[in-house]
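Request: Give me one sample?
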Amino acid sequence: MRTILLNAVMVVFLAGISFSQETSKALFHVASVESSNAPDRCPTERCTATKITVEGYTQAKDGSVSVEYVLDCAELIMDEPSPHQAVVCDHVHANSGYLVKIGSNYISFSDDDPRFEPLHAAYRIVSEKEPKHK
């Protein structure tokens, strides 16, 4: 039962996140971090979800801002069969820089293997934009 539930959780959270082979590395500066309850992210009623939203930007080699991002990730605590973390997100802090892996629709702050419990989720790219040049 636990394996079926974990697979369902993985499908819910990885749907839309494509872990393609083409990724790039970049320095990501975190500007803000916010968390909120996210009951709509739970695959069952016996679950607690916390959505983490990160705003930040990548930096070009000359120090200018390359791309601004809004990211989100949802952590899940499943209540059955016993309370346990099913999905975790990297916890990052504002005014800090991180070496990240950028995929087609996700940013990963770590190189953890997603095959092991708890699932270590990447952040989904909600929006990205190039800053207007003055």
